[in-house]
Specification:
heterodimer, A: seven-stranded antiparallel beta sheet, four-stranded antiparallel beta sheet, 12 helices, B: about 375 residues, alpha+beta, three-stranded mixed beta sheet, 10 strands, globular, extracellular matrix (chain B), wnt signaling pathway (chain B)
């Protein structure tokens, strides 16, 4: 006897369940209140050290804040007799005698190069091509409070572009150009306590290396790291959700298997959706505390990607299965949806390739950027556009299908008044609950979009005058994350097959019992899981 | 140790009281005497002796060696000894900027080798004084924020002035705060403490002066924040914008100087009322915001040399013959006329910059007319 819990649950029980779900949703928002913002920055001003012997280029020779000869670039007298190869910009991360913790997860480095305008020395080209020789070393705390010597971590010579604008109407000596930031590196793990960046800007007139560079006054490195507090809250959320979703999945699958029929397509979709969510919830972040896992960023991208791909496909299949038009005798399978699902597949695969090109290469070279070569830029753009296009096609498909479902529902609704009262009430309830779930999906999507827009607005509009202790960004992140967890838990619970035989509900008239039994005979085909669809099939027969 | 320090502090206070008593005994002209007690030097002098300080030793200076600190500032100096180099840098930067901004005006921000740095001019609650205070405060905010990013200071941003013992925990949990905010707060404590140390009778000139300084210091501090630029970076999944982080980019000090010079030009004249508040002198003018400069008294005449007001006069100053503006000979020389000297000079011209540190120039020979005020 097919039929889901959603249709057979009494109104009281349903309201209790919904209340519990809403409460756990609220709890997720409240959890966000205690956590700090997801990420913090630290701006580090480079110390300019002088390398007396630039020719013997040893990779184990490091310049840190304690280097013997320092100069200030703005004092012209201190740079006499030096050339570009002598200068080493040393940045020690983090500042203020702090040290990184594995809880801080990852590190992004952005370079700000202040180029000063001097009278009569205008930049020849506002688009400056930079060649950066960047090396990173690490060091750890020793037990007696000291530090281990700097050890080589990675190094690379990379090209970057910097766009500098200078307002012609406002030309003044000593003003800086308005230059864009230069993304420098992305470390997938913060396993060591201290990191050191040694940056060189070599000059070669013949090879045209750094010839477009103007008078540099300062170089800042802006580092972005996750906040330990946020990671803790995030991982605890995952630790709570993971066993819950696992338990619900086991319960759901048991229920499906206790039926005499084979599991329907929608049930396969639901269990795989639960599976991808469990994969997303799996708190493997705990391992980063004990092992150096630079592939964590990539892995979390993959986990999110798999989850979103599954969620998008599920929506398609879900709407398709409620199309209310039964092609009798044919068992529904994924093959029926290949046209629709291929848009999801194309989008996800192109994003995966893009991710492999950027984050995948970061595993080998943290300084790599796909955007610096024309070929790489075109390639990256192709994949991003491809993903965007397929997302557009997907949504067009989905909207069209939803529109058809609602059209069908309204057609069938017009037939409703001709039915007997008990049946009508029953079917109206089913349609109502179905619409309710569609509505919930819509709300979840809308809340997600709005909250991310809001969080970006909040970040961009930070004011100094008001002291905001509440971290809206982290509240939004935990809230939205919790919302999707709750949403999928609700789907798994409400769309699990029901054991209850709904005709056993109190029915007043005798004649109707006959009708119901006839209906139930019709709907015993395994491909129909919802009595809503069976109702439509019945209506079609009539 | 603690006792002796307490004793020493008491001793200092006693000596101070004695000093005021003596001063009171020999009061001849109350106003000048009051002025003198009010301006026992200024901390801005730290900027002038900056180079000597740096040459003597690379480490932090001792607070006793620093000139012009008020008792409250000396206390802060002891607490934040490592900040003092940055404060001195800030003062120096402000003095240089002041000279640059006023090089073509009647008052050219002339620095004198006395305790007041600017000479007696600074004791007059004029526009120029307002500008000098704002610029100095801005210089310290800028310099402290910069020093924070340099790794020179041990704990900025991570603490709100106090240094908690579990700093590491805080850092791992939520990261360090913004350096600009820290610079603002430190400067607020360090610069404003002078004006808050002594209590004046409400509505007196001295109280008005303290209020004016506080207002202008705040305007200077805010100028640094106002001119800073917010930059954001997306770093979510595959570089998408699901996570966005923003930070403040410090402005070049020249930009801050230009901004404050504009504020100087639009400064508002105020007076202190009986309730001890600042009030507009001309009710028709718009009320100044926290970003605007205010002053109490008219500027002295900077045309002629006057040792009492501290004006050096404009005699001998170079001027621009063709300019109708404030740097033109007409205005700068106060109608006294000018001398012209013809000379032929060799100059560097058509310069081309070569990274890192070379400027390739040609030498041009030009004849130059220099005009100086009579």
């Amino acid at each position: 006897m097919p039929g889901t819990i959603l249709e057979n649950l009494s109104g009281r029980k349903l309201s209790v369940l919904v209340t519990i779900l809403v409460l756990s949703q609220l709890a997720c928002f409240l959890v966000g209140l205690i956590s700090p913002s997801p990420a913090s920055t630290q701006s580090i001003l480079a110390t300019v050290c002088v390398d007396d012997k630039p020719q013997d280029d040893k990779l184990n020779h490091w310049f840190d804040l304690g280097c013997s000869k320092k100069i200030h670039l703005e004092r012209e007298e201190s740079t006499i007799g030096l050339d570009a190869n002598n200068l080493v910009f040393a940045m020690q991360m983090p500042l203020h005698g702090q040290d990184y913790s594995s809880w801080q997860q990852n590190l992004v480095g952005e370079l700000q190069i202040d180029v000063i305008y001097k009278e009569g020395q205008k930049l020849s080209n506002p688009m400056i091509e930079l060649l950066l020789d960047a090396r990173i070393a690490y060091s750890d705390k020793t037990k007696d409070g000291g530090r281990t010597p700097w050890k080589y971590y990675t190094h690379s010579q990379t090209k970057r572009f910097m766009d500098c604008i200078f307002n012609e109407t406002f030309v003044k000596d000593g003003y800086p150009y308005d230059c864009t930031m230069v993304p420098l590196f992305e470390l997938g793990s913060l396993f060591h306590d201290y990191y050191l960046l040694n940056l060189r800007l070599p000059y070669d007139k013949k090879k045209e290396i750094n010839t477009g560079l103007g008078r540099v006054s300062d170089i800042y490195l802006h580092t972005i790291h996750m906040n330990g507090g946020f990671t803790k809250v995030w991982v605890s959320l995952k630790t709570v959700f993971f066993p819950i979703i696992l338990a619900i999945m086991i319960w759901f699958w048991n229920r499906v298997h206790s039926l005499s029929r084979k599991p329907a397509l929608l049930e396969y979709m639901l269990i795989s959706l639960g599976g991808t969510l469990a994969f997303l919830d799996l708190p493997i972040e705990y391992f980063t505390l004990y092992f150096d896992m630079p592939y964590m960023l990539f892995l979390s991208d993959i986990r999110q990607g798999v989850f979103y791909a599954m969620l998008l496909s599920f929506w398609l299949v879900f709407t398709g299965e409620h199309m209310l038009i039964q092609e009798t005798g044919e068992k529904n399978s994924l093959r029926k949806y290949w046209k629709h699902l291929s848009s999801v597949a194309v989008g996800c695969v192109s994003l995966l390739i893009f991710d492999l090109c950027e984050r995948g290469v970061h595993l080998v070279n943290p300084f790599y950027s796909i955007w610096v070569t024309p070929l790489g830029t075109n390639l990256a753009l192709t994949f991003v556009i491809c993903a965007g296009l397929s997302a557009g096609i997907y949504f067009a498909f989905l909207c069209y299908m939803i529109w058809r479902v609602f059209k069908n529902i309204s057609i069938k609704r017009s037939v409703l008044p001709s039915m007997t009262q008990a049946r009508r009430l029953h079917y109206e309830g089913i349609i109502y609950r179905f619409c309710f779930l569609m509505f919930a999906t819509l709300i979840c999507a809308a809340v997600t979009i709005c909250s991310f827009l809001l969080s970006q607005y909040v970040q961009g509009e930070k004011k100094y005058d008001e002291n905001m202790d509440l971290e809206l960004t982290s509240v939004i992140h935990t809230g939205v994350y919790g919302m999707w967890n709750v949403y999928i838990c609700a789907l798994l619970m409400l769309y699990a097959p029901s054991h209850k035989r709904w005709p056993s509900e109190p029915i007043c008239a005798e004649g109707e019992e006959v009708e119901f039994s006839r209906l139930s005979n019709d709907t015993s085909t395994p491909n129909e899981i919802s009595s809503l669809t069976s109702f439509v099939a019945k209506a079609n027969i009539e | 140790m603690r006792f002796s320090e307490k004793f020493r502090r008491k001793f200092i206070i006693m000596i101070q009281c004695l000093g005021y008593l003596l001063l009171g005994l020999f009061w001849t002209n109350p106003t000048t005497a009051l002025r003198r007690s009010f301006t026992n030097g200024t901390w801005m002098r730290m900027g002038m002796i900056m180079d000597e300080m740096m040459q003597n030793d690379q480490g932090s200076p001792s607070c006793k060696a620093l000139p012009g600190l008020s008792p409250g500032q000396a206390r802060l100096c002891q607490l934040y000894l490592d900040h003092m180099n940055a404060v001195a840098m800030g003062a120096k930067q402000a003095l240089n900027e002041c000279k640059h901004q006023f090089q073509n005006r009647r008052w050219n921000c002339s620095l004198l080798d006395d305790v007041n740095v600017f000479g007696p001019v600074i004791t007059i609650a004029s526009r120029e004084t307002a500008f000098a205070h704002a610029l100095a405060a801005a210089g310290v905010v800028h310099s402290i924020s910069r020093a924070c990013r340099d790794g020179q200071l041990s704990s900025c941003g991570c603490s709100r002035m106090e240094r908690p013992k579990d700093l590491r925990k805080e850092w791992v949990w939520g990261g360090c705060g913004d350096n600009l905010e820290y610079g603002y707060r430190f400067t607020q404590n360090f610069v404003d403490v002078r004006e808050k140390e002594r209590k004046f009778k409400r509505g007196t000139r001295e109280q008005g002066r303290a209020l004016m300084n506080l207002h202008n210091n705040e305007a200077g501090r805010r100028a640094v924040i106002k001119k800073s630029k917010v930059t954001c970076k997306c770093h979510g999944v595959s570089g998408s914008c699901s996570l966005i982080t923003c930070w403040q980019q410090l402005a070049n000090f020249r930009e801050i100087g230009d901004y404050l010079r504009d504020k100087y030009d639009g400064a508002t004249e105020v007076r202190v009322n009986r309730r001890g508040r600042l009030q507009l002198r001309d009710p028709q003018v718009t009320i100044p915001t926290a970003y605007d400069l205010v002053y109490l008294e008219d500027s002295p005449d900077y045309c002629e040399r006057n040792d009492i007001t501290g004006s050096l006069g404009t005699q001998g100053r170079p001027c621009n013959r063709t300019s109708p503006d404030i740097d033109g000979c007409n205005i700068l020389c106060c109608g006294r006329g000018y001398n012209t000297i013809k000379s032929i000079v060799k100059e560097r011209c058509q310069c081309k910059f070569k990274w890192c540190c070379e400027v390739e120039c040609k030498t041009c020979v030009i004849s130059l007319d220099t005009h100086t005020c009579k």
